[in-house]
Structures are given as structure tokens and as C-alpha cells.
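mind reviewing these C-alpha cells:
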Amino acid sequence: MTPVVILDTNALHGRKPFTRADSKILLELSRGGHLRLIIPDVVLHELSRQWAERLSEGIADMDSALKRINDALIEIGAAECELTVPSHRRAVFYDFARQLLIARRVEIPGVPDVAVADLMARDLDVRKPFDREGKGFRDALIWETIRGLCNELSDPSIPVVFVTSNHTDFCSPKNRELHPNLRQDLHADQVFDIVTSLHALNAHASIKPQVEQLRVLQKAFTRKRIEGLVDAAIKDLHGVDVEQALGAYAGDGFYDVPISSALDSPAFEEILPDNSSIESEIFRSGDGELTIRVVVVCNVSLEGFIDKSDYLVSDDDVTLLEDWNSHVFHASDSHRVRFTLSAEFAESDLNDLDDVVLTVDEAEEF
């Protein structure tokens, strides 16, 4: 019985949407036919919009930096620099992602053919995923896609797992299960679960056995070798702005950052990994390709700035480093953070792994 997995936009939101370890595992399970992986068309369009917006913001930053450089060059009579960056609209990202996903047997059902009158009635009746302000149009299209897929299943005992962190619009306020408004749209016996992330998905009872089929017996990496890879990856974060290192573009120039700090513009000051916490796994992630995923808990200190008036009323444990100016302190604060790191390498390179470099997939306060 092949399980069905459906992804919401937020399941792929963040850094490395298709190349972090959990994504690679899921795409390989799809490619091998171990599950039906479904990404509704509206989800892919929404992701493409986010990618295009992030690129546009980056280009704007580059243009500003280039102007400052050229202003300095003009002052000394030097030739101005030119920089040409291709303009990628949403459609370009959409087409590229669609080709990548179809090659891995991912199903991308089109926008459902649902009557506007039916959507309006659902909106006016404040039936989920709509709220009282009328928000929820794209979520409603995602749900219509899910309902159609479930109705087409030959057996309601086939497990369907929906990956979304949108509890407000899809879940009951009493628990994290499907909202009763939505549950009544499905067959009474339909097996349907919600999980909040790809990591949680890969640990789900109906998916974990398939994930285990991709696991490779770990012989190539000794404990000392993995600790060295973690140390190298962590060193790359020293002095780096937290938003730059971990931020996921959320639209309108804003980034979601997984570490909550009272400081403005916090950067990594010190990161001390707890080597006893290190866990590692290796999975097959393609033809002749392997992926190693490493989880480690670290004691992290950040440094940045805090307004003096905010410091006086703050309940956060902030350490003052110096009196920066009349308005702000230079300060630091401490966190316990669990990092997930990964690297991809060729199976043929198992005897020569000097070039393996771990990079951060995600982080969460622990």
C-alpha cells in the first residue's frame, strides 16, 4: 500500500528547499515509487513567487553596492564597473522547479476546477481554511486539490499525510489534527494525518519504513571524522549575521530567523558543539549518490546591539560588552541550538572523502 504525501508551501519554505537532507530523501522515495509525492500547482506557484522576490531583493542590494563602488571609482578617475545579472521572473523559477520535480516522479496536479460560488459560500460560512476576514483563498485551492485526490483513492485505508505548519487554517484549535470542517469533506474511513515538517514526515509511521530502505550502513565516517566535519561547518558560521546564515525569505523584504534574540543584527560570536549529542545517518539520495545528515546541539553566543531603553525593561539574559554610543549597548546573549547539517557525495568516493563539506540545513532553539 503506497502512502500519499502532500506538501503545503511552508513544508518547502526556507533554505535549501530541494537540497537539504530531508528533501533529498523524500525526492528519492518519490523517484523510486516508494510513495506518491504530490505538490499542488498553487504551492509551486507560491514558492516560485518567493524565489523571484528574493532574487529581486538581492539584485537591488547588488545595484546599491555597485553604485557605491562606482562613486568611489569616479572620484579617482577610474573606469566604472559593470555587472549584468539575468532577470528571472516567477515563471522561470516555476518551469525549472517543475522539470526537476517531474523527473523525480512528483505529481503536480493543476489548479482544481471549483466553482467560484462554492468558494464564496465556504468563505461566507467561515468554513476552514477561510477565516472571518476572508483570508484563505490559496489554502482553499490546496484543500480542494487534497479533497479531490482523496476521493480518487481506491481504498480509504491508504494513508495520506499532509505536511503543513499552518495550524490556524487546517487544524482544530483543540489539537493538531485536521479541522472538523475539513474532516467532513473526506470519506469517514479515510486515513489522514498532518505533520509539521519534512523531518517529522520522515519519522511518520507510514513513511519511516520507506526511509529505512534508503539507509546505508555507516562505515566510511568514523566518530572522529564526523566531529571534524561538524567543527569545520561550525567555524564557517563565526562572525556571520544570523539572518544571513539561517534566514528564510518570508516575502516583502522580511526573513524568518529560527533563533530568537533581543539583539539587533545579531551575529554568531561563539559556537561550541556538544560532541556527545552528535547523531549521523547516511542515505541513498540518487543513482550513485549518498547524503549524510548530521544533527548536533551547540551552545551558541550571539553578539549585536540593544537599545538602552529596551535593555532596561528586557527580561532576556543579555550580557553587556561595551557602551557603544548614547543610544545602544554592544551586547551578547546565549542560546542552545540544534543544527541539522548535510552533505552529498558520490558512492564511488567512499574511499576518498576529503572533499565532503557539511552545510547547515536548518536550526532550532533547543
Q: What stands out?
A: Residues 112 and 148 are 8 Å apart (CA to CA). The chain has 13 helices and twelve strands. The chain has two domains: 4-214, 223-365.
